[in-house]
Queue: 2 jobs
Job 1
Amino acid sequence: MRILAKSDIGKARDMNQDNFYVAKEEDAIQLFVLADGMGGYKGGEIASSVAVYSAQNYICNNFENTPKEEEAIFKLLIDSIEYANLMVYERSKEDEEWKDMGTTLDVCLIYNNKAFIGHVGDSRVYRIRKNSMKRLTKDHSYVEQLVEDGKITKEEADSHPKKNMLVKAIGCNSLVEPDVMCKAFEKDDIILMCSDGLTNMLKEDEIYKILLENSENPVAALINSANREGGVDNITVIILDNIEKESEKEKEEIEK
């Protein structure tokens, strides 16, 4: 698997309030975490940093003793996100300037050719397979709810004035209920995790086109494109490309 990740401050912000964690290819636990913070001076940066560290630490400390069954791994993800939520919520009480801080949080654990995903907020996870790109997560936003209720169209949602209003986030309440899912992660699949600094600047078909046309350095291409469109927010992109290793390809050729 090829792992690519980068976070960029964008063109309009004074501070990068996104944070992420990516496992190394040789790590026993293939874990990837992304958070987009919000709230007050440094509040968003603290919220996203605490959330990423807490979720990553919880999973790495508990994965070995977790039964390797779908429901048990779901529970591990849920527990890690609930723990991260509580850590951010408690930290928000320490300073008046941090009282409204919160963050999105996406956790992706790759195990046994499957992607176990936990999600809160409006950062997104996509899967690219063959000739299509599919969004796996649902935005926990006011506008997404309007679309689901049939009150506005997807096109109207793109320019809605309350587009960035979240109905669920990490750290805003003592309890949170994350979405969890398990998706197959097959050979040549690509998983894209990103903050809304990317998806607010580029439409999904544009993101897909950039991925296809920039196989060597897709993360840089996506961030550069978002910045050319204005870069009004921080931009974080993680790409997990389930390509076959060169050594494995060579081995197959020798065996043939």
Job 2
Amino acid sequence: MGECLHVFPINSKPFRIPFSDWTVKWWQWLAGIPKPYNPASDQTGEFMTISQENSVVIFLCQTIEGTGGILTRKYTLKDKRFFFMPIINWISIQDVDGKSDDDLLHTAKIKMDVIDLLDLSINGFRFKDLVKNRVRSEFFNIDLPSNNIFDLNEGQKRCLSDGYWVFFHTCSDYLQLSTNSSCSLGITQIGINYHLRIE
């Protein structure tokens, strides 16, 4: 894999935090940002660091379902070399994807049980066996602002997340990352390219 790229095993605890808890932090970050400047709606990379409060780890994200095509986001980061992101993921929201906790769990499982493609490359290294990178969270709450990416009423919502994730560190001054994934027999396709300079 190379000395400049370290990928954390899915059962590890980067910065003493389990992967499942990192997925909760990621969703709470993304869901709390209004749609007009939400990083998932970002076409170029200009919104990439909005509400990024961790001093060491940067959250990356895919596009919103239905964006069409694979976008390329570019940005220059100030000495941030730890990254956490989904390859493809799902969030079940109470009263949207079911009433009970069992409903939310069932919906998330069905969505992530039908993955057709998991493709990820970082600085020329193409990953294999990404099916082992599946992580399901515990139940958690998100605080939705008005004009949120789910087009729901603002307020607190109970949720559960399931999906495929990667947490990695690079010592390189340039990060070129590409993902391309699909689920639901290829109906839903998600992908993104990142070209990041690290100073």
